[in-house]
C-alpha cells in the first residue's frame, strides 16, 4: 500500500560557517571547554512538527510563501531527509521532480539523460530503452533528444523530466514548482498523464504558486508557514484562507 | 522492478538502514557502472584518443621515472622500470580512492539533494571509475611484459584477489572519508597532503628490498620503518605477483586486518551519520 506518514517530524539544519565546519574548533573545544554561544552550531528549523498522512489516490498541493518549507517538505516526503526528530514513513517507489538542472548531465544527450534518470529512479537499462519511444512521443522533443542537454531550454528540460517520471509508473510523485516553465498546451497534456498515474498507482504532492496548476492537479492542500503546517484540507478552502479571501467564496466584484 | 530504497520506515534500526543503503546501492549496479564509465568518457570528451590518454600518460610517466631512478639508484632499467610502473598503477588506484573519496558526497551534492538514492551509489561509482582507470593502465603493464618479461607463475594470479581486496578497501575508505570530510571540510586538503607525502614514504620509486638489504645500516634501519606504512602492504600484495616475485604472507595478513577494522569503523560511521550526510552537503 502506497502511503506517506509523518508524525511530529522535524528537520533542523545545522549551519556550519567556515570556522565551525573545521576540526580546529572541535579539537580546541575539547580542550578549552565550551565557548558559550559561538561554540554551538546555529540551527535553522526548516520544518517543525510535521504530521501528515497521505494515501493512495491523494493529490496534495503545497502552498506557502518562499522559504515556508515547501521544498524541504517535499524532500522529507521523498526520504532524502530523514527527520532529525519524529517519524517519517514512506512506502512506495518515489519519483521526484525538483530542481531540473540537477541529476542531468548537460554534456550528454537527452536520450542518455533519460536512461540515467530512469536508472536513478530504480529502473533497469532495458526497461528504460523500452520506454524511450513513449517518452520521445510525449515530450515532443524529436531530434533534439540526440542533442546534448545543454542546448535545451528550461521548458524542454521540464518536458524531459516529466516524460521520465510519468513513464516509469512511480507510486509517489513529488513535483516542485519548476514545472511551471512548460507551456499551457503541454501542461494540459501532462495533466492527463499525471492524473492517470495517480489514479492508477499512487499519490501526488505538488508545490506551486500557481492557483491554476494547483486546481488542475490537486484536490487537497497543505499550507506551510514558517516551517509548520498552518492548515491542511480541501484545496479550495486552504487556498481561500491562504489568500485571505473571506469565507463563503463570493465571486469578487 | 527493483525497488528504490527511498522507503524509510521507523521500524528499521539504524544498523538495518546502513546495511540497506549498502545493499540497495549494490542493487543499482547498472546505474553506477554506467555513471563510472560515463565519468571517464566525459573527461576525454572531444579528444581524438579518448580514454586511451589514461594509458598513454601512465606509459610516459613510468618510462621517464623508470629511466630517471634507474640512473639515480644505479639499478638496471629492467628491474627499476617494471617496479615503478606497477607501483604507479596501484598507487593511482589507492590515491584516487582516498582523494576523491573525501570529496565524494560534496561533489555529488546536487544528486544527493534531488534524488532519493542510497549514498553508497556514489561510492561504488567512484571505486568503479578508479578500477576502470586501473584496467586502462594495465595495458601499459602488458606492453611492458613484452619488453621486460617477468618470471610470472601461476602464483601471479594472486594479483586478482589482491585487486579485489583493494576495491573492497576503496569502498570503505571512500565511505568513511566521505562522511567525515563532508562534516569537516578541512579534512579534504589534509588527507590530500598526507596522500602526497605517503607517495614518497611508500616504496614506489625506491625498491623496498634493495634498501632493506642496503650495505649502509642507517638506510636499512630506516627502510624497516616502512613496515608501519599500511600502503606498503597494499602495494606488495599486488606488485609482487605482477612482477613474479615471492611475497611474504604478512602483507596479506596486514591488509586483511585493515579491511576488517576499516569496515567495522565505516559501519559504525554509517549507522551513526549516514542520514546526516544529506544535511551536511
Automatic annotation (TrEMBL), chain A:
Superkingdom of origin: Bacteria
Gene3D superfamilies hit by this protein: P-loop containing nucleotide triphosphate hydrolases
Keyword hit for Protein transport: no
GO cellular component terms, semicolon-separated: membrane
Domain ABC transporter: 18-251
Record has Protease as a keyword: no
One Pfam family here: ABC_tran
GO molecular function, one term: ATP hydrolysis activity
Keyword line: ATP-binding, Nucleotide-binding, Transport
PROSITE patterns, A to Z: ABC_TRANSPORTER_2
Family: Belongs to the ABC transporter superfamily.
Name of protein: ABC-2 type transport system ATP-binding protein
TrEMBL record, chain B:
Residue ranges of domain ABC-2 type transporter transmembrane in the record: 33-240
Lineage top rank: taxon: Bacteria
Pfam families in UniProt: ABC2_membrane
One GO process term, biological-process aspect: lipopolysaccharide transport
Keyword entries, A-Z: Cell membrane, Membrane, Transmembrane, Transmembrane helix, Transport
Subcellular location: Cell membrane
GO cellular component: plasma membrane
Membrane topology, as annotated: Multi-pass membrane protein
InterPro entries linked to this entry: ABC2_TM
Transmembrane segments: 48-69, 81-98, 132-152, 158-180, 187-208, 249-270
GO molecular function annotations of the record: ABC-type transporter activity
Recorded family membership: Belongs to the ABC-2 integral membrane protein family.
Annotated protein name in UniProt: ABC-2 type transport system permease protein
UniProt source species: Klenkia taihuensis
Amino acid at each position: 500500500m502506497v502511503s506517506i506518514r509523518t508524525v511530529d517530524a522535524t528537520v533542523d539544519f545545522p549551519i556550519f560557517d567556515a570556522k565551525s565546519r573545521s576540526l580546529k574548533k572541535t579539537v580546541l573545544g575539547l580542550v578549552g571547554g565550551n565557548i558559550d554561544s559561538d561554540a554551538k552550531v546555529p540551527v535553522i528549523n526548516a520544518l517543525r512538527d510535521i504530521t501528515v498522512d497521505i494515501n493512495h489516490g491523494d493529490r496534495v498541493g503545497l502552498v506557502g510563501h518562499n522559504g515556508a518549507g515547501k521544498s524541504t517538505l517535499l524532500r522529507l516526503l521523498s526520504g532524502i531527509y530523514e527527520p532529525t526528530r519524529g517519524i517519517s514513513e514512506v512506502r512506495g517507489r518515489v519519483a521526484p521532480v525538483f530542481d531540473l538542472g540537477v541529476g542531468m548531465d548537460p554534456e550528454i544527450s537527452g536520450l542518455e539523460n533519460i536512461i540515467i534518470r530512469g536508472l536513478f529512479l530504480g529502473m533497469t537499462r532495458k526497461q528504460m530503452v523500452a520506454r524511450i519511444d513513449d517518452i520521445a512521443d510525449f515530450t515532443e522533443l524529436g531530434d533534439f533528444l540526440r542533442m546534448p542537454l545543454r542546448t535545451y531550454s528550461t521548458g524542454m528540460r521540464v518536458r524531459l523530466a516529466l516524460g521520465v517520471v510519468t513513464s516509469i509508473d512511480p507510486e509517489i510523485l513529488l513535483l516542485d514548482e519548476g514545472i511551471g516553465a512548460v507551456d499551457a498546451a503541454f501542461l494540459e497534456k501532462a495533466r492527463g498523464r499525471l492524473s492517470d498515474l495517480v489514479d492508477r498507482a499512487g499519490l501526488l504532492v505538488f508545490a506551486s504558486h500557481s492557483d491554476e496548476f494547483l486546481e488542475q492537479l490537486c484536490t487537497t492542500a497543505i499550507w506551510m508557514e514558517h516551517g509548520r503546517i498552518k492548515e491542511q484540507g480541501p484545496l479550495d478552502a486552504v487556498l481561500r484562507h491562504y489568500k485571505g479571501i473571506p469565507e463563503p467564496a463570493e465571486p469578487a466584484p | 522492478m527493483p525497488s528504490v530504497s527511498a522507503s524509510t520506515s521507523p521500524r528499521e534500526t539504524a544498523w538495518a538502514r546502513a546495511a540497506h543503503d549498502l545493499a540497495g546501492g549494490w542493487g543499482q549496479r547498472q546505474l553506477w557502472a554506467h555513471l563510472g564509465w560515463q565519468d571517464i568518457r566525459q573527461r576525454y570528451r572531444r579528444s581524438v584518443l579518448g580514454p586511451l590518454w589514461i594509458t598513454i600518460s601512465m606509459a610516459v610517466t613510468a618510462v621517464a621515472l623508470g629511466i630517471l631512478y634507474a640512473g639515480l639508484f644505479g639499478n638496471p632499467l629492467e628491474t627499476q622500470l617494471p617496479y615503478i610502473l606497477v607501483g604507479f598503477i596501484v598507487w593511482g588506484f589507492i590515491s584516487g580512492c582516498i582523494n576523491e573519496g573525501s570529496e565524494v558526497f560534496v561533489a555529488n551534492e546536487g544528486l544527493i539533494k534531488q534524488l532519493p538514492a542510497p549514498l553508497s551509489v556514489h561510492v561504488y561509482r567512484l571505486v568503479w571509475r578508479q578500477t576502470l582507470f586501473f584496467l586502462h593502465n594495465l595495458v601499459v603493464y602488458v606492453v611492458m611484459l613484452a619488453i621486460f618479461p617477468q618470471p610470472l607463475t601461476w602464483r601471479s594470479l594472486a594479483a586478482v584477489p589482491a585487486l579485489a581486496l583493494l576495491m573492497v578497501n576503496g569502498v570503505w575508505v571512500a565511505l568513511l572519508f566521505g562522511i567525515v570530510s563532508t562534516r569537516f571540510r578541512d579534512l579534504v586538503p589534509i588527507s590530500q597532503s598526507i596522500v602526497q607525502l605517503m607517495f614518497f614514504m611508500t616504496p614506489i620509486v625506491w625498491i623496498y628490498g634493495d634498501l632493506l638489504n642496503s650495505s649502509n645500516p642507517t638506510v636499512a634501519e630506516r627502510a624497516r620503518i616502512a613496515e608501519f606504512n599500511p600502503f606498503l602492504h597494499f602495494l606488495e600484495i599486488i606488485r609482487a605477483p605482477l612482477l613474479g616475485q615471492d611475497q611474504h604472507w604478512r602483507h596479506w595478513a596486514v591488509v586483511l586486518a585493515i579491511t576488517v577494522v576499516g569496515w567495522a569503523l565505516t559501519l559504525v560511521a554509517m549507522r551513526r551519520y549516514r542520514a546526516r550526510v544529506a544535511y551536511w552537503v
